[in-house]
Amino acid sequence: MLHRVIYASEAVGATGVSTLSIAQILGHADRNNRRDHITSCVMFHQGHILQAIEGGRSDVDRLMRRLLVDPRHSGLRILIDTPITSRALTDPMALCGEPEALLDRLGLPCLSSLTAREAQAMLEYRTAA
Which one, of 15, 6, 113, lies nearest residue 50 by Cα? Predict the structure, then answer.
């Protein structure tokens, strides 16, 4: 059975700020997610991270355990943790570009106080685009 987790966290240090840090994160995650049959999309915005992850329950749980101790995050909070019948994401690791445009489109000021409903709306809007 497939599972989806969407989490928000605060970036630590230069995480997600520089092109190099983003490229390193995407490269490592792409390789690991291919191995674990996970699809994912991540967004960096003003020191915050939002990521949607889809895959088998045990694979998603294993990834979440790694993320919970990853020093590039703090304050990780799970917004959505639910079984799904099909994937909304197709890439092992994708970067959600233009986060400000997506936040504006949905009338959200930032990622810091995102609710589960808003996170789901962002995923739906992104996958419909």
Answer: 6
